[in-house]
Specification:
Helix 1 packs antiparallel against helix 3, helix 2 packs antiparallel against helix 3 (32-58) and helix 3 packs antiparallel against helix 5 (98-121). This protein has 137 residues and is an alpha+beta fold. Strands 1-2 form a two-stranded antiparallel sheet. The chain is built from five helices and two strands.
Amino acid sequence: MNEETLQTLTWLIPAGPLLVFFLIVLFTKHNRTLSWLLAWAGVIASLIMGWTVAFNLFAEDPHHLAEHPTVVHSAIDWIPIGAFSSGTWLRMGVAVDPLTAVMLFMVPFAVFMIFIYSVGYHNYGQGSAHKRGVPPH
């Protein structure tokens, strides 16, 4: 995969769950099923994008990583600081090196496992007769 696509994916990894959060809070807080489906879509999208970036870095040549450890890097001007006419900006960016790739593999996986656990813990789909938080056994 080319570097430009990896940069875009790296910027979009936190965008999915953040967008889903605002959609649930603003529009679907009273519809449990739609909120649940949107939350799963955000988590799975982050998992797929994070693993895509991580596996592309794992596929790099180890000699290339020794010379250039940061494979994906991108930054944008974010907030102006100081006098506005001087053009001084605080920059915000993303960078993926081997340690970050390991985190891009593990953190979305851990969040995915937490979602699986929480669905079982809250007895989703059992109806309102069951007491919340009580295991179904």
